[in-house]
Amino acid sequence: MFIQTEQTPNPATLKFLPGRAVMGDAGTASFASAEEAQRSPLAERLFEVEGVTGVFFGNDFISVSKAEAQEWYLLKPAVLGVIMEHFVAGKELLREAQADGNAVEETDSEVVSTIKELLDTRVRPAVAQDGGDIIFRGFEDGVVLLHMQGACAGCPSSTATLKMGIENMLRHYVPEVTEVRAVN
């Protein structure tokens, strides 16, 4: 098994590509702590590597974030070993599925449905390239609430992406949108 790595715009996050589906079409999964990682055997093992502060599973990649004091040249071999061991052993990725916050639901208004569709078709594929994801959390009084995950969370360029990229695009296609805000 050969696992490639890619840098992301966030220097604290590295993207690992195992050459096979990770989440596939099942969405994404994000873990910000060892406690949250209890849903995933792989995430649990990755948090056992000293210095790992976040794990994110995308379609065909895993983004791992590190503590500021840690160096990738020390962490990378251990992370690669955990990922390789997991996939070679054929272990399950998640113990339980999680709902996709971006899925269009029957109860969504036309505006919310349009926002979710734009996020899915135009935004999420672009941020996945950088090892992250953006999840819709709500629409209130013209304000779209989004949760940044993976490499996007804590990235120095995430504010510019949110305001100049996503906000401008949503305001163009959905006149009801006045602002986009990041939420936890």
Summarize the structure.
The chain is α+β, with helices and mostly antiparallel strands. 33% of the residues lie in helices and 24% in strands.
Reconstruct the topology from this structure.
Blueprint: E1 4-7, E2 13-17, E3 29-31, H1 41-47, E4 52-57, E5 62-66, H2 72-89, H3 110-129, E6 132-140, E7 143-150, H4 158-173, E8 179-183
Parallel strand pairs: 7-8
Antiparallel strand pairs: 1-2, 2-5, 3-4, 4-5, 6-7
Helix pairs in contact: 1-2
Keywords:
5-stranded antiparallel sheet, 3-stranded mixed sheet, about 180 residues, alpha+beta
Give a structural overview.
The protein is of the alpha+beta class and 184 residues long. Helix content is 33%, strand content 24%. The chain contains 4 helices and 8 strands, in the order E-E-E-H-E-E-H-H-E-E-H-E. It has helices spanning 41-47, 72-89, 110-129, 158-173; strands at 4-7, 13-17, 29-31, 52-57, 62-66, 132-140, 143-150, 179-183. The strands form 2 sheets. A 5-stranded antiparallel beta sheet has the order 1-2-5-4-3, covered by helices on one side. Strands 6-7-8 form a 3-stranded mixed beta sheet. Helix 1 packs antiparallel against helix 2. The longest helix is centred in the middle third of the chain and has 20 residues, at 110-129. The model has no long low-confidence stretch (mean pLDDT 89).
Oligomeric nature of the chains: single chain
User: What structural category arises from helix and sheet content?
Assistant: alpha+beta
Q: What separation lies between the terminal Cα atoms?
A: 35 Å
What's the number of extended β-strand segments?
8
Model regions low in confidence, pLDDT < 50 over at least 5 residues: none
Q: Helical proportion? A: 25-40%
Large-scale geometry: globular
| Proportion of beta-strand residues | 15-25%
Taking Cα atoms only, what radius of gyration do you get, to the nearest Å? 17 Å
Q: How many helices does DSSP assign? A: 4
- The side-by-side strand order for the widest beta sheet comes to 1-2-5-4-3
